[in-house]
Design brief:
The structure is a single chain. With about 260 residues, the protein is α/β, with parallel strands linked by helices. It folds into two domains: about 1-90, Nucleotidyltransferase, domain 5 (2-Layer Sandwich); about 100-245, 2-Layer Sandwich (Nucleotidyltransferase, domain 5), CATH 3.30.420.40. Helix content is about 40%, strand content about 25%. The protein has seven helices and eleven strands. It has helices spanning about 35-50, 70-80, 110-120, 155-165, 185-210, 225-230, 240-260, and strands at about 1-5, 10-15, 25-30, 60-65, 85-90, 100, 125-130, 135-140, 145-155, 215-220, 235-240. The strands form two sheets. A six-stranded mixed beta sheet has the order 6-9-8-7-10-11, with helices on both faces. Strands 3-2-1-4-5 form a five-stranded mixed beta sheet, with helices on both faces. Helix 1 packs across helix 2 (about 70-80) and helix 3 (about 110-120) packs across helix 7 (about 240-260). It catalyses: (R)-pantothenate + ATP = (R)-4'-phosphopantothenate + ADP + H(+). This is Type III pantothenate kinase. It is found in: Cytoplasm. It comes from Oribacterium sinus.
Length: about 260
């Protein structure tokens, strides 16, 4: 069993994965830039004890991070807790993925890992929507080549900006509106964010499909995918564990690469 770790700007997701590729126990922590590797090690150990996860029995761990200042902290924390190595995913990691761009080192690792997860679990071409702090929409074509994509402000960023930059609009949580044509301010804000986000996703997906000249698989992941996707007109597969699936595949390829050396 391994522990797969996805460090995002807001939260970090941990998932145990068996040798058969089954994702079992998942937990989340805040991605705090103020904590040291020892503090992270203590927090992870405490949560794993509660969930009855045997850290010493792990074969190793694999880490994806879009927060450079936390990458080393998590890596050192896992080295303190586990006997096995902590693999940090970067552009040179084995992925069995080709890229349309000459230098893929500028592509965020989470985008590549989600693409690996999509390529190995869904029919191609695949359009991948990741709704995190930012919303990204990327494409893997039918030949399995990572083509690139677009980046949008995330739902939370948009909601916070709306409240911050206006005098009369309040800070609210993201939740479904009672109706699209709303009769009060809070519902009008919720409707605008939810339907506006859904509309932008539908529009970009449609343009991508026109460029690809086929529909392909549309996969959505990230914390708010379950909330937004039901309002989209395109059929979307919501897969909360897409990135963990990608990390598992890369772990397998990493082990194969090490054994062949």
């Amino acid at each position: 069993m391994i522990l797969a770790i996805d460090c995002g700007n807001t939260h970090t997701v941990f998932g145990t994965i068996t040798k058969e590729g089954e994702i079992q126990k998942i937990f989340r922590m805040e991605s705090s830039r103020r904590k040291t590797s020892y503090e992270y090690a203590a927090d992870i150990a405490q949560i794993c004890q509660l969930l009855e996860i045997d850290l010493q029995g792990l074969e190793g761990s694999i880490l994806s991070s879009v927060v450079p200042e936390l990458t080393t902290s998590y890596q050192k924390a896992m080295e303190l807790l586990c006997k096995g190595k902590c693999v940090v995913v970067n552009s040179s990691s084995p992925m069995n993925m080709s890229f349309a761009m000459a230098d893929p080192s500028g592509v965020a690792p989470d985008l590549i890992i989600s693409a690996v997860g999509a390529k190995n679990n869904y029919p191609l071409p695949a359009i991948i929507i990741d709704m995190g702090t930012a919303t990204t929409i990327t494409v893997v074509n039918k030949e399995g080549v990572f083509m690139g994509g677009v980046i949008l402000p995330g739902v939370g960023i948009s909601m916070n900006a709306l409240a911050k930059e206006t005098s009369l609009l309040p800070s609210i949580d993201v939740a479904p509106a009672k109706t699209l044509i709303s009769t009060d301010t809070v519902d009008a804000m919720r409707a605008g964010i939810i339907y506006g986000t859904a509309g932008s996703l539908d529009g970009i997906v449609e343009h991508f499909q026109e460029e690809l000249q086929e529909e392909g698989s549309v996969i959505a992941t990230g914390g708010l995918a379950h909330l937004i996707c039901p309002y989209c007109k395109h059929k979307m597969i919501v897969d909360d564990n897409l990135l963990l699936k990608g990390l598992w595949k890369i772990w397998q390829l990493e082990q194969d690469s090490s054994e062949s050396k």
